[in-house]
Amino acid sequence: MVVTRDPGELYLLRHTGGDAAVSFVEQIDPVTLEPMATSEMLPGGPAWPGSLAVHANGSLYVVFGNHVHRLAPDLSIQARTTLSCPRPYNGFVIMPDGTLVTKDFAGSRPGVAVAPECRQPTELVALDPVTLEVVATCPMVEPSVARLSAIGDTVYVVGDTSLLRARWDGSLTADPEFRVPYRVRQGQTYGWDCVLAAGAAWFLDDGDGSEGYSGTLRGHGLSTAPLHLVRVDLADGTMSSAQVGDGPGGLVANPPVVDDVRGVAVGFDSGNGVIQAFTIAPGGKLVPRWRRRQDHGSHMVLWPDTGELLTADFDRDRGSEDAVVLDVETGKELARVGTGSPLQSVLFPAVGFSGDAYLCSFTTVTRVVVA
Fold it and tell me: Is the pTM of this model over 0.85?
């Protein structure tokens, strides 16, 4: 993934694979994408795509494997720590006071299958942003594969079967009154990351099978129930959902997009090659709005002022991926350009400095300009 810092400062997180993987960060030119500086090799651990963020204090933070690193803008090391769980930690959030909160990853990885009955409940870990000292932990009641989300001082965890949350106030405390089951259908599997918008948490289910990625997620879904967009009201815990996929074999590894200004939610099914948008009706009811056949796998990016939605489309026959801009209200295709990636991206794009965006796959970084 890439992140932006001050104008013109662009940083790229890279890593190796396997159970003893390392990561490193490059500062790259925002136009040519050529490396300008590179960090030392950063100890990692079991590989699963981690996270890179720019903190309000100016530092860069890397969570990858079971290690956390704090880097200066020149990519020198300021602090590092090893987390206790031998599994990868696949993401983190920065709380309003600057504290980092991360969690371990409970899913299967390529070559490392974890049966559902063997998944261990996840633990939230809070880290001091200066020293990276562990300042609090919070065991949750379920395993979690998804990355964390937060709004204010509340952290949301998409568990294996339920949406959970915890409160940060100098300590981490699970909310015992908030456990919302979303696995209510035979053949349904776990959900991925949630988007917090319009008073609700939104996420996509049927996440099992992403470890089978073979340059594409198409055809690797293990769920026998159709994929759904799930909505959970943050105030009262009411859960509702709407079907996105066509049938069995649905699969995602990323979240939906919610345009709370226009009242549109967009989900997708990478296992079957479908993007489906819904109108958010009063009470949170989801009404089908538009639908496209498109092989999308990564995070999406919405420009809220224009309603332009950046998606991707992988052509398995050509072995090539396009960046595709859609109108979020109609699904109309506005622009398309090849990214040069021979693999489907299942990773994290970023908005650039001047109407541009950066896309990452496991092989390629691409800059596109939306004009």
Answer: yes
